[in-house]
Design brief:
Elements lengths: L1 E4 L14 H9 L3 E5 L10 H6 L3 E3 L2 H5 L4 E6 L14 E5 L6 H9 L3 E4 L14 H20 L7 E3 L2 E3 L3 E5 L3 H12 L3 E5 L6 H6 L3 E2 L20 H15 L4 E4 L14 H6 L5 E4 L16 E4 L2 E5 L8 H16 L16 H6 E4 L2 E2 L2
Helix pairs in contact: 1-10, 5-6, 5-10
């Protein structure tokens, strides 16, 4: 069996789907691993390290795809890559399957089997394979670090002979994996941290990390069976907007992380709310690529709106490519390893809930 790892071609993507550590494990299991030259360079993994781990280096994407049985990628292959992928090959990646359903039909027509790792079921057995959690964790950390670097004031309380500098106030909207890590990071840096989420049951988690929960009273439930947030009612949106607006007026850094799987991100911060924030405040919109939690934010851009810096970045994990690649690669290995035979072949058990839950395209059909 041949496992192939091409260089990511999506603009701004620095991660790689396999690292020397996982290549060594795949090779020890009897598989041939091919790596496109330079695939790990942006993440700090040299070609020589892959060779030493047992990989075969390929000069081009066409060469790395030739006769491939399994292809590992961070993001779904781009349209130009699809003709290079052998019919019957298996691709594992973040396909953003719920939001990009139309793209899946291209892989179905090409006879490619796709495992959308972004659909990994949220069960205990899958925790070591969950790419969304591993990457969101790093993204939440990176969001705070970037915001702090953009802020024009100190973050922790400082008592000096020249006077006292009060701690910066941070507001995190959305207390999922990314949000919780953002709360923890901001708290470690000495900020006063506040957080809001449509799921009142996360209050305990927020407070355990040292944050203060911005409560919005409701009898409604906005959590899916898988633990994700879902769309709220109009009545709740109005109450939430009022609570957020009140807190934003006192906020130096706001981090927005709210996503609804398969839908446009909810707008949580309007242009009018931005006007009330202190001059020099920084907002990081981690949902910018899905429509944005901040009115007017744009993916990949830093804008100044009424004196507030608004940064749209939905791929913050890529700013920590060494660590992000390591976690992603281990997620992939943990998913594939149980299916590899002693002879180096692979067999997917489509009755297994993890396989069934992530398989998005099979036998020419889109399954999700």
């Amino acid at each position: 069996m041949i496992i192939s790892v091409p260089k990511e071609c999506k603009h701004g993507e620095t991660r790689v789907a396999a690292i020397p550590e996982t290549v060594r494990k795949f090779a020890a299991a009897g598989t041939e691993v091919r790596i496109e030259k330079g695939a790990g360079e942006a993440a700090g993994y040299a070609d020589a390290a892959y060779q030493e781990a047992g990989a075969v280096l390929c000069d081009s994407v066409a060469a790395v795809y030739k006769n491939a049985d399994v292809i590992l990628k961070i993001n779904a292959p781009e349209p130009a890559e699809i003709p290079l992928i052998p019919k019957g090959a298996v691709v594992l990646a973040n396909f953003q399957a719920l939001a990009e359903k139309e793209r899946l039909s291209e892989f179905a027509r090409a006879g490619i089997t796709c495992f959308a790792l972004d659909l990994m079921p949220r069960i205990s057995r899958a925790q070591s394979m969950d790419i969304l959690s591993s990457q969101s964790n790093l993204a939440g950390y990176a969001a705070v670090i970037r915001a702090v670097n953009e802020l024009d004031k100190a973050v922790p309380l400082m008592m000096t002979a020249a006077g006292t500098i009060p701690p910066a106030k941070v507001l995190v909207l959305g207390a999922g994996v990314a949000g919780l890590q953002a709360i923890a990071t901001a708290k470690r840096l000495g900020a006063q941290v506040f957080a809001s989420d449509v799921r009142p049951q996360v209050k305990e988690q927020v407070e355990s990390l040292g944050g203060k929960f911005v409560e919005v009273e409701t009898d409604e439930s906005f959590e899916t069976e898988g633990g994700y947030a879902k769309e709220t009612s109009e009545a709740y949106k109005k109450r939430q907007a009022a609570a957020v607006a009140e807190q934003l007026a006192k906020t130096d850094i706001a981090i927005t992380t709210a996503l609804i799987p398969g839908k446009k991100a909810p707008v949580l911060i309007t242009r009018e709310m931005l006007k009330t924030m202190p001059a020099g405040a920084v907002v990081i919109d981690m949902a910018a690529a899905s429509g944005g939690n901040v009115e007017g934010s744009e993916e990949g851009k830093s804008l100044v709106v009424d004196g507030v810096k608004v940064i749209g970045d939905s791929n913050l994990a890529a700013s920590l490519p060494f660590s992000a690649s390591a976690l992603f690669a281990r997620n992939v290995y943990n998913f594939l390893a149980p299916m590899i035979s002693r002879e180096g072949g692979i067999a997917f058990d489509f009755e297994d809930e993890l396989v069934k839950g992530t398989c998005a395209v099979k036998d020419g059909e889109v399954l999700k």
